[in-house]
């Protein structure tokens, strides 16, 4: 079976795993994920952080918006440009800067200033699943792969990517295409670990 044929089946299985956790366990795991990120050296060293607004299948990172802002960081979240099929980082100061967009995805309001993608130090990336060596299973739209691919094409190696998920979303292997972008690190309720040999750890 081709990678594109395998991915839908894997997405369905991983979403079922998350659903089985239930809201209480997901909330508890989300608290742990936020704690691991906030305590990491990656977070401490970053000045511009790109997070995501989670749905019920993803770790809730909302509290990190206020934390990062209080610490003097620029915190941004992606606006989804559906027509251009791209992500546009926009600075937010609190969850009040988010509004419901297409498909119920929360996005920064139009009043939020755009942030140059190449200025992002740390990018926390959602995914339906990940392998321990950084392969990401996305939702199929390719938005994050195009965003990261654009940075690579421009020669920007500044951003460090950390895939965020629940432990049940880690798999031994996943199909990967040539355009798929591997993560530098992974964070779950169990901790944050780097998966790229050329990326500094979290100390």
Question: Which key features would you list for this structure?
Answer:
single chain, 203 residues, alpha/beta, Rossmann fold, 3-stranded mixed beta sheet, 4 helices, 12 strands, 30% helix, disordered C terminus
Please outline the helices and strands:
Layout: H1 3-38, H2 41-45, E1 48-50, H3 63-70, E2 74-81, E3 86-91, E4 98-100, E5 106-108, E6 122-125, E7 129-131, E8 136-137, H4 143-153, E9 160-164, E10 170-171, E11 185-188, E12 191-194
Parallel strand pairs: 1-2, 1-6, 6-9, 7-10, 9-11
Antiparallel strand pairs: 2-3, 4-5, 7-8, 11-12
Q: Would you kindly provide a written description of the structure presented here, covering whatever features stand out?
A:
There is one protein chain. With 203 residues, the protein is an alpha/beta fold. It has one domain: 3-Layer(aba) Sandwich (Rossmann fold). The protein contains 4 helices and 12 strands, in the order ααβαβββββββαββββ. A 7-stranded mixed beta sheet has the order 3-2-1-6-9-11-12, with helices on both faces. Strand 11 and strand 12 form a beta hairpin. It is globular, with a radius of gyration of 16 Å.
């Amino acid at each position: 079976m081709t990678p594109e044929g395998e991915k839908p089946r894997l997405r369905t299985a991983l979403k079922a795993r998350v659903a089985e956790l239930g809201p209480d366990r997901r909330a508890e795991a989300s608290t742990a994920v936020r704690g691991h990120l906030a305590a990491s050296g990656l977070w401490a060293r970053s000045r511009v952080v790109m997070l995501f607004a989670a749905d019920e299948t993803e770790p809730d990172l909302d509290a990190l918006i206020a934390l990062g802002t209080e610490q003097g960081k620029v915190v941004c979240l992606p606006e989804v440009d559906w027509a251009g099929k791209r992500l546009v980082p926009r600075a937010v100061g609190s969850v009040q800067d988010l509004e419901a967009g297409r498909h119920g995805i929360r996005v920064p309001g139009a009043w939020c200033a755009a942030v140059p993608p190449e200025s992002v130090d740390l990018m926390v990336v959602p995914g339906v699943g990940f392998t321990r060596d950084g392969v990401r299973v996305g939702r199929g739209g390719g938005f994050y792969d195009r965003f990261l691919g654009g940075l690579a094409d421009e020669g920007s190696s500044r951003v460090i990517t950390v895939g965020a998920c629940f432990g049940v979303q880690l798999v031994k292997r996943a199909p990967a295409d040539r355009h798929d972008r591997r993560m530098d690190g992974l964070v779950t309720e169990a901790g944050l670990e780097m998966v790229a040999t050329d990326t500094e750890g979290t100390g």
